């Protein structure tokens, strides 16, 4: 079945539809539930154990439920089946050296020349072929099982993440949880793949040693002693590397966190020209990371050394002792080559052992982290009674809440009864606990005392609108079925119809991660529409009008929430700052530092007048003017009609947001050689040539050792005199030793050179990537998922740091190995060349077919990995919304779907690898057969030592061949990472930060801004966003820019900062045309308070002043002006408080769809009764309040 895919992949780039599906029993839909059941059993069993222990002795150390045990119970049968395959494969691997021994003996005594020789040759072929088949089956099952284990664990982590309580959410940041999913689950999978080596390696060692004993007697113990001595040294190195890796993860976490923040807050960085200071920070973390990597590289030199020199040291020790033990010990060809083959077999398990042992250690750490996470506190369902059936919708009785079990109560003694169908406002100052009340109603807070009851289903609109990365319609339906009529009604009520006309594909437009391609107000309206569409019984709305324009807020209130809105018969709880709405409420709850200060209807609160005034003082003066003034209600229907009419003849709204998200491109076709050249350039050509030279040297010396041995065995055969033999023996042994030392030297220098070069490459490529990303224009960040960019810094850089140089090195090594082998055999049996030529041809054909499809499957697998992470981080950020709507199951199902997609690609990858291995090893097996056949045919014309040499070389070739193609493929596939890291180089960058023309230091000192026929558009293929803007301000003047959503208010400020570059005209500030100076000179001199506030993690001081320009006194002054001084003084560390991971010449400029409609003082504009006046009336502001 694999053939179909390989052939198809050769004809055209494979797509997802071409891959085979998994068997039902292997898919995540089956695997996850079974494993969850086992895990629940384990948790229960553990609780029972604890109870029994507790009843016996008091201080029982609390044991956590074991993840391993649950995994074993789920997968034991498959694991045992895999182990059985491995046993057979191991036994077969030892039969080929034995057959070779018989052949050498046969060549030495050729009296009964007959069919026996051919029999041996055939037997050898059958054995190696069987070994191939069994091993490939083992590999396939093994990989699939390990992938299933990873799937099961991911499913469990996801489910757990949906249930975390607030304490646990604090303990595990989003980054850490994602790391558990990507790194720790992967670690488990890697270990499972190598698990069988834990018993198979000792078994192979035992068999090899016992067979060697038959050849060389007790001398074997000397060789084995050398091997055993090397293991602890290797293990030491492994633990050191392990420690380094651990410190590496810390650096990685820091780096990802900082990158995440930088990319999320990139707008601020650009507007304030802070890129260099943040770039410096990341580079500092990166340097620490490279230091660690350097040490790890040098330690690897050591393991490389032991790897290559062990076979030589072992044979040196063994033969040396063998001669010393007994003078009469001759070295015959049989003995030399059989023992060499066995030592070669011995080499692999010995290296795998330390690797597996260190993997076990690492997996124990990962298991610990996973178990910690899976056993953290969950939200208790008893925080709130949801099946209450009394007469009110929500009831609190003497209830107190805190964010964690031990913490101080945030809400104290709440007694609130909310009747069904009531409209309730929760008001109070910032930090008085308004949002906490909603969280308590949702059951998101820990209840300390009292009773909370809630009746019916809930819909929740969070303060930070949470938008999914899917089409707009799916965001609103949120898993419900489509009912056209109601859906249209909801869209109209939430004022989304005009927005849909602007979006490129209406409600089928794909919305990017975190809703980056729609405006703040649109996000809020979408999340409100989602709530309304869910037709719940209770609506909890957390300040839904804060991000929308005044008149839209008014319309939303009337059409959705108010007494004539869609929700008029539902229970609505509204946290709000807008006091004009209070008269329309059925019940008002006034919160003050966690307690209910006042509660009652608007009339009741008014009758206790002092309280109401007291309440109003809590709000700003301007809102007081609103609340005491007659609330002017405008007929919203006529306005809507006008608005829609207006919008039809206006060019489209907010164009900057128009582009939908870019999906990650899956590159097609071969990896260009230029990509690898790029890496080599970064590596440094000097290092490249030096390392190639050291590898050639190392391989030549290796061949030299074997030729020396065979020549020695040949001479020994013709010796008659015993004394002669003794003389040449020590001489031969010394030269053999010398060759070994040379090999060691080459290996060491090669590995050292490689470490130096790969560090240089990592440093260069990372610096380029960071630089390129920070120079990209802001629009790029608004249309690309952040995850995609972070992936470049994490996954792709990891491959460049750790993997790529290793693949290149192994590939060069294998190439030299194969060439060496072929040369040695051809030297011994010249006819062999006739067999080699067609084999080489076949070999390259197979490789061509395989590489084409494998590359594509791997790219699909890579692309199928990001949705898992995206969906996961999206879930983590919207977890309270998902829980409020009660949609956990649906999201768990979605997670299974994305995981399954990834699993399908992975499985196809495994199958195509097996296809390759079977064919390649078959070619290798044919080579063995040819070499054996030629040796038999040559008859007595050939020396038995030569037979031994060529067959033992041929037996080695299969592994090298397989490795060779695999590595060529790895290079191809992983070069994609280099492509991706370099892809930002060729994207359009913003203008240079600093140019040769620099403005004077005092500029701008007057503050005269002049727009001259200014035009701007967001992209070449879109219409103008600003058209012919011309106006001039006087110095030190306050200018208000007003206009409807999408009229171009933000675009205007973006143009001042050159976030959007001009299409015509110019902007002059104090006599300097802003397009002639560098961006940092411009942005550093202007200031802006952006629409969405972003805080970076770090100290408060660093957020205020990342460039360290100002003194503490100046910072305190600023805080005082922003009314934050008291708040900051109340913090324990004040400015060093750690922030954790978000007039008479006032003139007004009215914009309408990118044109200036009116410009003048407010009074004159009102008298003109134009667009400005119309907007005022919509917002319910009367003339007298303006003159006030």
Distance between the termini: 82 Å
How much of the sequence lies in strands comes to 5-15%
Helicity level: 55-70%
Q: What's the helix count? A: 39
Major sheet attributes? 6 strands, mixed
| Mean pLDDT value | 79
Number of strands: 18
Domain ABC transmembrane type-1: 80-362, 689-963
Domain ABC transporter: 394-618
Main location: membrane
InterPro entries: AAA+_ATPase, ABC1_TM_dom, ABC1_TM_sf, ABC_transporter-like_ATP-bd, ABC_transporter_C-like, P-loop_NTPase
Give a quick precis of the structure.
By secondary structure, this protein is an alpha/beta fold.
Q: Describe it for me?
A:
- It comes from Felis catus.
- This is Multidrug resistance-associated protein 1-like.
- Residues 394-618 form the ABC transporter domain.
- InterPro entries: AAA+_ATPase (IPR003593), ABC1_TM_dom (IPR011527), ABC1_TM_sf (IPR036640), ABC_transporter-like_ATP-bd (IPR003439), ABC_transporter_C-like (IPR050173), P-loop_NTPase (IPR027417).
- The chain crosses the membrane at residues 118-135, 219-238, 296-325, 735-754, 818-846, 922-942.
- There is one protein chain.
- With 1188 residues, the protein is of the alpha/beta class.
- The protein contains 39 helices and 18 strands.
- A six-stranded mixed beta sheet has the order 5-6-7-3-8-9, sandwiched between helices. Strands 11-10-13-14 form a four-stranded antiparallel beta sheet, with helices on one face.
- A hairpin with a 2-residue loop joins strand 17 (1147-1152) and strand 18 (1155-1160).
- Helix 4 (95-108) packs antiparallel against helix 12 (333-374), helix 9 (220-264) packs antiparallel against helix 11 (275-325) and helix 27 runs antiparallel to helix 31.
- The longest helix is centred in the middle third of the chain and has 53 residues, at 722-774.
- The chain starts with a helix and ends with a helix.
- Residues 620-661 and 1142-1147 have low confidence and may be disordered.
